[in-house]
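PROTEIN DESIGN WORKSHEET
SECTION A - STRUCTURE
LENGTH: 348
TOKENS:
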């Protein structure tokens, strides 16, 4: 094996390799590893940035959304030029990361994570990082990770508080051991009601990324067995030991090998987007021709076509339509109205 001191490919990682837990061998492991970053908003963009700089050799980045001005308050990979270019987040992130580290491979996907595609997105990766903003997707990731034995790191933030949990399938509790069911809609605060501070994003994403680095370098003994909760406003950090939870409970996922989210039994086709006054509507279909739809909608409202989506401004609403049949309906958080607008302008 080439001596690290004479390996130009490792030069940029020299400070990281001086840490005893990494070294040259750990760095080589990172460069040969593959990670899925699911969601590239606040947590996801920070995760992708950190892992790219650390030398994770292959990053698959999946995000369903496009950039908005309010994203720049906390989504560290993006700037006003990306906003002006009207880029989907996954594409903007990939462009930025390729400039940050040209040694690694970035694979962006502009897509919603669904039961139909989650296993393909998880295929071949060594770790999954949670950068999502909803429990339905997290439970779907948990099903896929446990079924296929892929470590994953849950994370979430709201207000000034954040939490994270590392899940090693078969060895530690899974998300469903900790949270039996997603909270019912309307029962929990959202970023619309509680807001969100950027610093807590950095803290939680840094913990998540560090856990991923432990996993990817083979340092499983150093992986946290605690549910970590931080509150930056109250200056508190709590760690709840959950190491015995898997053995103590008859978890439907861990023990009974039931995967209802993966089977599509728990999936919905709408999602209210936090802080956006917008609803995503998904209608499963193989592919939607945006060119055909643009011709159909000519004269209906103001149309804009980009390589990534078709945008229709009509009345007080803004419909952003993707080739996979998804649409983000801006101007309302009423799911029923969003479905009506989708049917009216795109089709049922």
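SECTION B - SEQUENCE
RESIDUE ASSIGNMENT:
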């Amino acid at each position: 094996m080439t001596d690290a001191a004479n390996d130009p490919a490792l030069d940029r990682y020299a400070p990281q390799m001086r840490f005893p837990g990494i070294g040259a061998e750990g760095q080589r492991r990172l460069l040969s590893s593959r990670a899925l970053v699911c969601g590239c908003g606040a947590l996801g963009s920070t995760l992708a940035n950190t892992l790219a700089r650390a030398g994770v050799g292959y990053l698959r980045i999946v995000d369903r959304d496009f950039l908005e001005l309010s994203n720049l308050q906390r989504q560290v990979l993006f700037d006003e030029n990306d906003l002006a270019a009207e880029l989907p987040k996954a594409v903007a992130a990939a462009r930025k990361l390729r400039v940050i580290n040209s040694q690694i491979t970035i694979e962006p996907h502009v897509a919603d994570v669904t039961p139909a595609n989650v296993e393909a997105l998880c295929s071949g990766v060594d770790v999954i990082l949670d950068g999502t903003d909803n429990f339905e997707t997290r439970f779907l990731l948990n099903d896929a990770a446990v079924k296929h034995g892929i470590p994953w790191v849950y994370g979430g933030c709201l207000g000034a508080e954040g939490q994270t949990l590392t899940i090693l399938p078969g060895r530690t509790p899974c998300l469903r051991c900790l949270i039996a069911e997603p909270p019912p809609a309307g029962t929990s605060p959202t970023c619309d009601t509680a807001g969100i501070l950027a610093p807590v994003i950095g803290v939680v994403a840094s913990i998540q990324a560090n856990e991923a680095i432990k996993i990817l370098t083979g340092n499983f003994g150093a992986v946290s067995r605690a549910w970590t909760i931080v509150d930056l406003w109250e200056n508190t950090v709590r760690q709840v030991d959950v190491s015995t939870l898997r053995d103590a409970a008859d978890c439907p996922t861990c023990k009974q090998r039931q995967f209802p989210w993966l089977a599509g039994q728990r999936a919905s086709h709408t999602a209210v987007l936090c802080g956006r006054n917008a609803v995503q509507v998904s209608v499963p279909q193989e592919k939607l021709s945006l060119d055909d739809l643009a011709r159909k909608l000519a004269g209906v409202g103001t149309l804009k076509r980009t390589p990534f989506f078709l945008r229709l401004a009509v009345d007080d609403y803004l419909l952003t339509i993707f080739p996979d049949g998804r649409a983000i309906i801006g101007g309302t958080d009423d799911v029923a109205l969003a479905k009506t607008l989708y049917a009216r302008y795109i089709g049922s």
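SECTION C - NOTES
The longest helix spans residues 198-216.
The radius of gyration is 21 Å.
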